[in-house]
Amino acid sequence: MPVHDRSSFENLYAGQPRWEIGRPQKAILDVADQITGWVLDAGCGSGENALFLASRGQKVTGIDFVAEPITIAKQKAAERGLTVTFLVMDALALKELPEVFDNVIDSGLFHVFSDADRRRYVEGLATILKPGGRLFLLCFSDAEPGEQGPRRVSCKEIEDAFAQGWKVESIEPTRYEVRPDPKDISFSNGGPKAWFVVVRREG
Asked: Which residues contact 92 (CB under 8 A, 6 or more apart)?
């Protein structure tokens, strides 16, 4: 898939992307007690992680650069009686957000960026995350074999990306939950191998 290519993601949402599992990712569920205050969900898709956090009483803003999943997310929020601000927005333009957030979650966005866009993204995160706030990041791991799906990310790449003005508190191996697809057996059994990363904004 071309890196950060809007048309590719629009085509995926014309069907049902495999990462849309109809519930929050387990990695997010496992740390939900730590994700407090005003939360930004960067690359929120159709909103399951954002809506889950809102159901726990957090104030949540979700952004995605494709319109279709944002429309779906707004419909889900209305159906569930939850208040979440969902915006069609490119995560490379975070500096344009007037708000500053207590915490940020990123489930499957970081790994779509090129090296240059990754730097822009991290710079943007630094402008909208309070000092002491945390980024909770789920991304594809370089332990996942093959080249199907998004770019693989190494621990060193994560550490390098957050070397200045951040403290990487933990990098743990996990799995990315995806919908089963008998026609596509390209990922490891149990879901693609991933990293779950907690990074604190210093300053």
From this structure: 4, 113, 117, 120, 121, 124
Beta strands in 72-121 (DSSP E): 85-88, 101-107
Residue 83 has pLDDT above 90, yes or no: yes
| Phi, psi of 153, deg, nearest 5 | -125, 135
Instruction: State the Cα–Cα distance between residues 27 and 80, nearest whole angstrom.
Output: 22
Whole-number Cα distances in Å, 46 to 23, 92, 109: 10, 19, 13
CA 137 to chain centre: 6
Give 17: exposed, middle or buried? Use CB within 10 Å, 0-12, 13-18, 19+.
Answer: middle
Strand 129-140 relative to strand 59-64, pairing = unpaired
pLDDT of residue 1: 36
- Helix (H) or strand (E) holding 141, with range, is none
- Dihedral sign for Cα atoms in the order 184, 189, 191, 195: negative
Q: Give the number of residues written for the chain.
A: 203
Ordered structural domains, the chain, with CATH = 6-127+140-201 (3.40.50.150)
Q: Provide the token pair at 112.
A: 């779509």
If you average pLDDT over every residue of the chain, what do you get? 90
Give me the sign of the Cα torsion angle 28, 29, 33, 36: positive
Q: CA 160, 165, 167 angle in degrees (round to 5)?
A: 70
Q: What is the DSSP string of 143-162?
A: TS-SSSSSPPB-HHHHHHHT
